[in-house]
């Protein structure tokens, strides 16, 4: 003993050997045998070998009241027991008894219970009972139970007199007096109607029991059992269940209110909804709800919606209520519930805020549960108080197929319970709440219990047909008919070329331009929507592209280009001509005489004039005669009008002068390229137009001197405007007004 104790102390106080030490102590080749021994030793702990069954518990026996006759002492003894712990092999059970006078017997058991008939035992005698369990490997007996048959007779159940609501209580009367016994103590137990299990009863009561602090407006179930004072037998059976509802209390808390906007943030489509108060909050019968609307201009509208009204403005289902109509231009709302005792605090909510859509959520669905999870938002709202997670069944009317839960701000997941159908989309949205009861949608996603292939794409058509391309359009499939999340569209041209059009939840694509087509060719195009389950039914459209031709736009472009090029050529030509003949006023009259006849050059000699750089007069003519005039022929379309004099010419009106001008031009057109001064002057006089200042011209310096006096006389008779210019300038040169 001392050595073992000392060794034990050494092992406890010392260091335990490590695996390396044990491995070093083992001989070579022993590791495999050691592992095998370890598995063999641990095998019995994992699976015990078959053997006799474990012994059952001692039996509990009694003689029921309804089956006994007290004076005749007849009846049955009922016994029950519990099997042994975790029996591995099925066993058969037998109830055994033995009386004081060695009267023995046994009976086979059924479902761990058995009965001893009245002929097999004596009244008011001592009885010893036990249970035997037996299988193919052996048997085991339970501990025995000894009792006097007179002590196990059940007493009659007590009689319930009344139950009270306020205060919550129950009263009864014992049945001991019916058997000539005095009343003893009784036990009471109770539970709420929603509970499933009975708690342990409370004893020591006589005829009445009060429930302290019951839940208001809650239904309770109560039972009583009693014993007689001078009877050593067991207590009576429990009485029949008595139900009683506690008194009402003032409702507490606030209603849980929210908006059903049909899965969209459109405020005009929102319906105000709230959940019915649970029993713990209602504490009585809710008679109605008070809804207070606050308009944007500050006005208040109060609606009192009674739950007793049918077909009114309030509709309530099993769990939710909502108003059938909502006023316009509302900024916030308050809702409170009231009963006969009082009303709750008002719940406050503003109209839905902007959609942020910066948070992704993950959905996992089955027919009963939607598991929603999300990450913490990158940018938290100011004064964030929590989240709201909602779902909306696609295609369902307002206030139907809709539910929501509120989640603490520290959580990043939630569960929505319900009955969800296959091939129907449920749009799940996540909202962030602030202390001011403002809400902002963070994200949304559509989930399906089971997805299917989508139906045919509606309204597939061709909007515009050209020679090499067409514009296709279609309408999106209604959400409640899609049978799955639309991942994209597959467009097939003549069963050969395939185009894949990808879509997303935020961007619904309904247009596509089909390019690189051949002019004047027939085509057949089909479109199919695609979900995770595959492609849906095909919608087909047929068309023929246009022939290749210049459109009106192209013709106009080509014509405009031609006109532009022609205009540029004309401008270049005019610039060139203006540089070639800078002193010739083009387009002024049909014929432009040689400017050397002007009085401006009278001080110059003919040689000097010829030496001057006149591009329009050939410098190769050394002896140019004044009688030979060089005339430039102007095209008629360049002349829009001929200068007219403001005053009358020899009695002819201005319009007639214009006609004469045209006639004069025609006459001048008939004059030859070279004409003498006299022929020109005769032509002028014959038609009655022109100025006389130019009628006399000289060909040399000598003739100018001889006729100087005559010219001075003519100059004195001319007007003031003609004093500084000779007849040449007055006749051929334009006036200042005409130049402007």
User: Can you give the mean pLDDT?
Assistant: 76
Q: What separation lies between the terminal Cα atoms? A: 144 Å
| C-alpha geometry | elongated
* Tally of separate helices: 12
Tell me what portion of residues adopts beta-strand conformation: 25-35%
Rg over alpha carbons: 61 Å
- Unreliable runs: 1-45, 68-73, 583-590, 611-631, 636-676, 687-724
**Structural class given helices, strands, pairing?**
alpha+beta
Largest sheet: 5 strands, antiparallel
Number of strands: 38
Oligomeric state as shown: single chain
How many structural domains can be distinguished in the coordinates?
7
- Helicity, as a percent range: 10-25%
Give an overview in words:
The chain is of the alpha+beta class. The protein folds into 7 domains: 60-152, Immunoglobulin-like; 159-245, Sandwich (Immunoglobulin-like), CATH 2.60.40.10; 256-350, Immunoglobulins (Immunoglobulin-like), CATH 2.60.40; 361-447, Immunoglobulin-like; 461-544, Immunoglobulins (Immunoglobulin-like), CATH 2.60.40; 550-580; 583-739, no CATH class. 17% of the residues lie in helices and 31% in strands. It contains 12 helices and 38 strands. Strands 3, 4, 6, 7 and 8 form a 5-stranded antiparallel beta sheet that branches. Strands 33, 34, 36, 37 and 38 form a 5-stranded antiparallel beta sheet that branches. A hairpin with a 3-residue loop joins strand 24 and strand 25. The protein is elongated and about 165 Å long.
